[in-house]
Amino acid sequence: xxxxxxxxxxxxxxxxxxxxxxxxxxxxxxxxxxxxxxxxxxxxxxxxxxxxxxxxxxxxxxxxxxxxxxxxxxxxxxxxxxxxxxxxxxxxxxxxxxxxxxxxxxxxxxxxxxxxxxxxxxxxxxxxxxxxxxxxxxxxxxxxxxxxxxxxxxxxxxxxxxxxxxxxxxxxxxxxxxxxxxxxxxxxxxxxxxxxxxxxxxxxxxxxxxxxxxxxxxxxxxxxxxxxxxxxxxxxxxxxxxxxxxxxxxxxxxxxx
Amino acid sequence: xxxxxxxxxxxxxxxxxxxxxxxxxxxxxxxxxxxxxxxxxxxxxxxxxxxxxxxxxxxxxxxxxxxxxxxxxxxxxxxxxxxxxxxxxxxxxxxxxxxxxxxxxxxxxxxxxxxxxxxxxxxxxxxxxxxxxxxxxxxxxxxxxxxxxxxxxxxxxxxxxxxxxxxxxxxxxxxxxxxxxxxxxxxxxxxxxxxxxxxxxxxxxxxxxxxxxxxxxxxxxxxxxxxxxxxxxxxxxxxxxxxxxxxxxxxxxxxxxxxxxxxxxxxxxxxxxxxxxxxxxxxxxxxxxxxxxxxxxxxxxxxxxxxxxxxxxxxxxxxxxxxxxxxxxxxxxxxxxxxxxxxxxxxxxxxxxxxxxxxxxxxxxxxxxxxxxxxxxxxxxxxxxxxxxxxxxxxxxxxxxxxxxxxxxxxxxxxxxxxxxxxxxxxxxxxxxxxxxxxxxxxxxxxxxxxxxxxxxxxxxxxxxxxxxxxxxxxxxxxxxxxxxxxxxxxxxxxxxxxxxxxxxxxxxxxxxxxxxxxxxxxxxxxxxxxxxxxxxxxxxxxxxxxxxxxxxxxxxxxxxxxxxxxxxxxxxxxxxxxxxxxxxxxxxxxxxxxxxxxxxxxxxxxxxxxxxxxxxxxxxxxxxxxxxxxxxxxxxxxxxxxxxxxxxxxxxxxxxxxxxxxxxxxxxxxxxxxxxxxxxxxxxxxxxxxxxxxxxxxxxxxxxxxxxxxxxxxxxxxxxxxxxxxxxxxxxxxxxxxxxxxxxxxxxxxxxxxxxxxxxxxxxxxxxxxxxxxxxxxxxxxxxxxxxxxxxxxxxxxxxxxxxxxxxxxxxxxxxxxxxxxxxxxxxxxxxxxxxxxxxxxxxxxxxxxxxxxxxxxxxxxxxxxxxxxx
Lengths: 257, 872
Ligand SMILES: Nc1ncnc2c1ncn2[C@@H]1O[C@H](COP(=O)(O)OP(=O)(O)OP(=O)(O)O)[C@@H](O)[C@H]1O
Ligand SMILES: [Mg+2]
Description:
The complex is a heterodimer. By secondary structure, chain A is an alpha/beta fold. Chain A contains nine helices and ten strands. Chain A has one domain: Rossmann fold. Chain A has a six-stranded mixed beta sheet, sandwiched between helices. A four-stranded antiparallel beta sheet of chain A has the order 2-1-4-5, with helices on one face. In chain A, 45% of the residues are buried. By secondary structure, chain B is α+β, with helices and mostly antiparallel strands. Chain B contains 32 helices and 18 strands. The two termini of chain B are 27 Å apart. Chains A and B meet through helix 3 and helix 4 of A and helix 1, helix 11 and helix 14 of B. The site of magnesium ion has 4 residues of chain A, from helix 2.
């Protein structure tokens, strides 16, 4: 494959192609359908916001895209890799190189301090070189964690923990970023810093971003908003330049109810 | 640069040092326990071998009288003939007698061995290793115990009075210290020339045993055949089994018992460690899931865990080996009366090390395997998920299956195989089965007793909801750790109580036994005993000796023949005869009197499937003769009594069963005429000790009056008399001593388990700090939370009590069945409720304290710090 065709496929083929995926959780005898035949296509470099009521399956979708859980049925292709048929080994590589994830519950390692938590993905991947270190310094600086680097997660505020999770997701400079309520715990100032950071990253490289959010203001950062209800896509709309939170909220309300 | 997986492991230890530290401690305890058991096993076996060597000596071949009655002897002139055989390098004989030693005006009765001076030390170099062998007829070698009590040293002169009333001076040539087992089994005695002993006792002593050392290269089996043919059926020529072969009988029994102990120790250690690793397992599974989510490979997680467990495992194992080694040396030194040899072989070290390490690594692998099986995200959320009751039931089902399998193992027809299979597989199955039942029972008891316990601890019942059912595996594991000590202690104490209670003599037994170890009792005086001695209601004399016998198609074995006087026997011993249906006693005794009939003890019925009317073949002087079983006597104690009276010979020949036949038969078929035991019933109103003394005096009064003779008769010293009460006390003391040792082992496990459980409880309260913090934040009071934890702990304790006591009683019950199977002794199951109660209270107290301490500390902290500490 030549470089030209590679770029070609990357541009013409969608980065995320989801066809009819279902996912159910079993708890004892009860079964909860978290996703019921969801379709979603995200183009390379696209910035998509996912909205939906609580329990509509947003986090589940993100976990499936991150290769951290397996779908029951349907197909799921991310960056040309079919997650439904991949071996565990290649899934590990996928998680290391292709996606960066910001979890709703942060999932920081309690025994490591901020710096180590941020560097952990690079260390696990065995690519913890000077570039990664300088990127870490930069992220710490931008996310104003500078005087918190030696703290452990349980000594951080919720917002600080969230910022560490953000830095950790970006440290590998992944082609796909999956963020679950990345600004849910942040004040408006820090949320603005995050969006600015993301915009800057997107300027310098092609990154496909999938952000789960409740806030119309956050959705305004995206190019497109996909609305989920009861594990299904109920609709989507594009975000035009100049759309403000109020407009988006009304559009979302129309689709979500 | 260290691999990231290692860094993670080290960081985890530094972040949460409690668990790995406790884990190392547990590994230490487990390893030390296994080490101790192993060292006990090897040292015990080595000591046994050593002591046996001491007894067996260096002889290749030994000649004994075929019928081993107390006064049987070898034909005169046999030793001389044997010495003339070309194959024989050297040969020597042993005889026995009693002499009267006078020291400081006191006359003491002393057992004396008459030997061939020239060869005795060659046959028993071990015995003489510390002392000088006697070289001349007027020299003796003294047992160190005698030397001490007489105040005699090597070179001193000793005054011995002879039966006809003469005084002889003998020089002490050497003093030898008997081996520990020898000290227990052999009465203190002295060794001298047989001729001198014959002179002193006033009888022509015949050899009781001849030892032969063959020239190098002479085939032993061939020589035995030749010698047996030459010397006829009255003697028995047999090879002396040396080394491992000689040990086989005792070794298997001993090593089985010790292996059992070692196995239990290893099992308990492993379970404790695995449980420790299991505490907080969900937190670990969650962390592994998180790591996998951000790109850790399975191997990286595996490495982290292996290192994480290997570090405390290695530390604990190393420390455990050191502690185990030290304690073993100390204990073996302290019990040097039992352990002559201290032997710790590499197998013990390796086994102990492996148990500790393997248990840690296996325990640590469980969370990895869990995280491995399920996806990374499932692993992250697993901690929040409830366990379905179906799983708990499934696990309990496996437990019940294990218990059923264990019952199935007991059905193996071959007794030896059954015993081994049961010990090696069955007993561990009981442990696993019971532990697997624990989660179910804990959840069940939570439902049943939750309200009551809540009221007892003065907390709202809702606080106890889900105490066990929310964390059934952890609860089950805690119960498992708690119950091991309880079960172990229960079984040990119950076995001790059961064995002691089982020795009880039935009412039908005579009140007094008087036993003459070397000389036959005077027959005509025995006949007049009831008339001549006041207080004697009835008397009957018996003698017992060993013969060879076969039952059915079985291999020949040693059988104790108890020769009785059928008529008078029944007046003293009220035998209950039974088969499957009661047998008429008169008819049975009629068969006995008519000839070629025997009674057998009830355990023979179970061991060999003998029944009334079946035959038992005994090796007589005329060759094999078939005797008919006339009845089955429910007096196993007659066997026990004889074993006790012949304790000195126990080491050489252990009769597997006893048969009771008539004296007439003893005379006709075995040539045994002498009587050595008389059983007496005491008239009401007489003290049995006084009557016993009178009987002894009457029986030992010499025919021809002499000063010394009268002196001895006054004390009745040459007869051993024992009242049933005293005999029972002696037996009980003996058993009690053995059981004390066993109970110490049980106590050791209990203490080790208690330490382990306390550590576990502390750890398990600590992992719940966040939960406690949230409850505090929601308004729960500090003492309320402490009481809640105490209530939860009591739930665990109650579950452990039920399972542990049940398991202990069941194991004790199986112990009685094993007695029956392997020894033929019908021991009873007695549950030592007192000990069980004390042990239960102890465990409960310790467990509650162990839970209260961290609970008090945790709830004392600020709620916010507690919540934060668990936020991950
Ligand atoms: N591990 C699990 N076991 C059982 N049910 C689950 C599990 N994870 C999610 N669910 C259920 O699946 C449904 C979708 O969950 P999901 O976390 O995707 O919702 P969400 O859209 O992210 O909600 P929120 O906005 O509140 O985060 C919910 O009803 C949830 O209860
Ligand atoms: Mg969510």
